[in-house]
């Protein structure tokens, strides 16, 4: 049996995950539109033998322009460009089931999977927020449960589309003048509540069959969805105990959904802030906090908590009478995490904004490379994680520091591959089997159906 | 005044534009999913100092699998990969206004324009056919006029989105902690018949402002649309006289729409079939016709003419009582072109299929390099074309032959650039000004508004 190894994903975001990162002297405030910036990050992650890199997304302006970089290149477009600049690393794009149509999106992911040689992944999001909804003809955001119902139907249709060509549908018989075998094409003929999709995809089945399916919502609806569909899960957890609970719960739900719990990889997000001494790491963190514009932080926190503008005071606590998660139609699990963090540590609004500035609710690991490696190893070995979503506070420097100083320690401890070896698909990197086509019965000796 | 020069666009399609091209011994029947095939084609076109390359598209399986390669990578995805493999050539993707949403599509084109350094173009199509409609929840294709009404609103919204950031919206004031100037953001706040789009795009204004706008429908609705929006037009014309009429008509309509007629470039499609002698060229053409499977051709012709299956006989003429174009809801101008071609030349169904096999209604120029160059020069100088959409019957060989043998003649005659020179945007290659932002009044000395 091969040794269990960490899976590492590099979560790339403009100048870094800390909201004030763009203000540092080293940062390029135009990084969000610089292909070269992203090529450098992707190659750094590949030097660190990461499994994958990842881009978040939402189809709306990300904030007021005054606050911070509010834009990003469209993820599938950017990842296609990065596919040609890299060889091994997986490429995970966020795309919304609420604001796309299955035919177009399934085709784009199949195309990226073909162009990248089987390295595409899809972070499936339902997209919270009224701002996105209003860019797609709606007056308000659809209810949380409605978004997830649409997402489930979207996935079912997308899987039908990706399986609409059997792997050997092209016969290429030049002499007979027969290019393909129409009996190996399976049109979805889908008529559901949200979508009608009659015909087969116009791209063949891709190297992975379909992209690695990734999910990141940790609400009850989100976890049910993940148990049914997801192969990797990004999650925000503030304590080892919470992370262990989440891990055990998600694996149990996956078993209950009839799937192998090893076929869903749990990757908590961490924000490493590294120094050659603990004091230097703390000082690096302080520099970032000193660059926060707190009035912007108050605006955003009021938005997240759905409070009227002007409710929060910087040196006060959160109001005692916040509504329960069940009444929130936006990002439910983020809401609860932030409220619990503030209550548990009795943080003022100012302190809470400082804590959220780094990772928007993800855990910050501040310390020396050894301390960060220790924390990673602890979570990995104590049943809290199959790997990590690495969210550097500042980019590119934070990723370079992690790769140059933490990765060698993880390799020395046998937790991370030394090199990639031969080219593999993203799904193979994550130790997952290639999914069988739902229209093909598994022949004796062929891999068992991974899902469906 | 600079000399008027030809604009050349390379229309890339799998193994070539002839329906039987995939059957030739030299052809790769998997070319449709091979990035390297397209990289080779793009670099060949760049060697020929073409202005641009172009991918057609429709969101449905392109034919029965038996007939011919029925699939294609999604164009924006493929062109993004080609952007990283080329330096100068424009990249024109087809995308449908009927089956996309403006926010997503405007963002993808802006992203490609940024990644490619201002080389993106959009071939705007309304997408004929019930098969596509049924992949997007509709039972039948929307009526022709309805599709064009939606297209016009789509363009208006897309232009608002591309202009929603002024060029200097990012101020990047690190000391003050102000990244951008919110007064330079102009949300569309659009509520129309087909679309509601409230907010600004989440990508800055791109190098070209927006992609080069290309159009290819030659129906009355299509020409009205082109006169209003298009900067380049692809068209199928079978005779010099028809091409001159179309050219004059479109330029006049453009003037009537209040635009400069030099700001719309007319590019008829031609299928060059080249040999070192005229006899060799004819023999090359005959080899292709010999590979046509005529039963497939009958199926497709019956589909285009909206006739019941089994109506046409291979050695008979078209029926005398075909309906007028006005009753056709699909590809109107293609319908009329095919019917007129058959009538004018008294072609049997078999002969018609042979003629359409090469270019689906586009003109085939068969001959020596000199003869092809003569025909190109004649159309260009006699008011029939500003350039050509080059549609090689077989790829990659047909494009290589054109670049190696016809391009040097065009250069020697002073009709085509010798080299690209410094990097330019696609719009600059076509001799068009960068469009001003609709929210910014042109200051004294700045380029005049190109449109709007």
UniProtKB/TrEMBL annotation, chains A, B:
Keywords: Flavoprotein, FMN, Monooxygenase, Oxidoreductase. It holds the Pfam family Bac_luciferase. FMN binds at residues 57, 94, 144, 148, 218-219. Residues 29-384 form the Luciferase-like domain. Residues 429-452 are annotated as: Disordered. Belongs to the NtaA/SnaA/DszA monooxygenase family. This is LLM class flavin-dependent oxidoreductase. It comes from Streptomyces dioscori.
